[in-house]
Amino acid sequence: MASVTLEKLRKSYEAFVTIHDIDLDIADGEFIVLVGPSGCGKSTTLRMIAGLETISSGQVMIDGKRVNDLQPGERDIAMVFQNYALYPHLSVADNITFGLRLRKTGKAEIDERLKRTAEILGLQDLLGRKPRQLSGGQRQRVAMGRALIRNPSVFLFDEPLSNLDAKLRVQMRTEIKELHSRIPTTTVYVTHDQIEAMTLADRVVVMNKGRIEQIAPPEELYSNPATRFVAGFIGSPGMNFFDATIVADEKEISIRLPDNQTLSVPGTRTELFRPHTGKAMVVGVRPEHFSVVAKEGRDTLKIETALVEPLGMDTLAHFKIAGLDVVSRLMPIPGLKANTPLTLNVDMSKIHLIDPASDRVLG
Ligand SMILES: Nc1ncnc2c1ncn2[C@@H]1O[C@H](COP(=O)(O)OP(=O)(O)O)[C@@H](O)[C@H]1O
Ligand SMILES: [Mg+2]
Question: What local confidence, expressed as pLDDT, does residue 250 receive?
């Protein structure tokens, strides 16, 4: 096992910088997920760690040792790709042991390691098959077997579940997590799927346009996003953002929404809002922080439902505030339809105040 450190790691293609001097410290045995939208630089970062992509500047260290100039095969890492990259003409056993045979590992040792790897991944009965005789999930397991058998210091995964259907993806996600708890090898896992990121990671690294927006454990990303980007990216449906003016009178501080409805800021949070009195700010509210109430109050909104989506456990009710689409996640209301007036409470202890100039979440 090993730690992995990225120091001012940069990738540029001629004048075009795709990875902007990122710093990241990954502890021995940690499961780190790089998440972000397509094109944000996740694969490029992973491939620089693997040695499959040249490093423009900065460095990659594995267990404190600079590996910039080492070949992929010299870095003691194993990588699993989205497309599995299995050899179609080789059996499962030969695919898994390919790397060991290449390194002229002894037959007895290969057999022993194959047996153990197949057991861990539940592949014992499939060892004689060819990849085309396997399901997508089984192929993915073979690809993992090929990485696992080498007993590397670091596992790198690039969107390994993206080609699987939704149900299998959840199952494989659980298997990867179980595998890591049994064999806690340092792992860097790339995905664009925030649910995968949240469920798998010890810490999530949110990337945007070649930069790191935030590094934090999943719960913290959800409750304390550092930037508007993270606030909007983590959570489904995503956070609602309102242009709001902070207003104060003798009694209290409130936020005024674009349709002139106001919500009062609770006493515990006035210190955060007060310095921004009179200013145009952005306020973020998660869909789950709305709830239906019978009576109007100082922290309620009057709305009229647009689209209503009953999901069973809860209901997504869409509505508009000054023409802006807003979505709320409500307790199920049997028979709730579009065009129904509702009074919604906003949990003001949970709203986020965002500085529109920097897009940073304050407080
Ligand atoms: N060979 C290349 N030349 C120029 N730009 C590239 C090259 N390879 C990747 N890029 C750019 O680098 C950025 C990051 O790509 P990538 O790391 O694949 O993103 P992700 O894996 O997050 O989807 C993208 O904007 C992509 O267009
Ligand atoms: Mg990618």
Answer: 85
Whether residue 47 has its Cβ less than 6 Å from ligand 1? no
Question: Closest residue (by CA) to atom 5 of ligand 1?
Answer: 13
Strand partners, 345: 291, 300
- Same-domain status, 141 and 52: yes
pLDDT of 85 over the 90 cut: no
- Candidates 10, 13, 17, 18: which one to mutate for ligand 1, based on the most atoms within 8 Å of Cβ? 18
- What is the distance between the alpha carbons of residues 52 and 39, in angstroms, rounded to a whole number? 17
- How many whole angstroms from 34 Cα to the centroid of ligand 1? 15
Do 208 and 328 share a structural domain? no
CA-proximal residue: ligand 1, atom 3 (nearest): 13
User: Is residue 244 domain-shared with residue 207, that is, in the same domain?
Assistant: no
Indicate if the pLDDT at residue 165 is higher than 90. Answer: no
Q: What are phi and psi of 218, to 5 degrees?
A: -50, -45
Residue whose CA lies nearest to ligand 1 atom number 16: 41
For the Cβ of 343 lying below 6 angstroms from any atom of ligand 1, the answer is no
State the pLDDT at residue 277: 97
* Residue of 10, 22, 44, 193 with the most ligand 1 atoms within 8 Å of its CB, for mutation: 44
CATH code for the domain of 350: 2.40.50.140
Domain count, the chain: 2
What are the distances in angstroms from CA 190 to CA 27, 272, 277?
17, 35, 41
218 Cβ contact partners less than 8 Å away, ≥ 6 residues apart: 197, 198, 199, 201, 204
Range of the domain at 219: 4-233
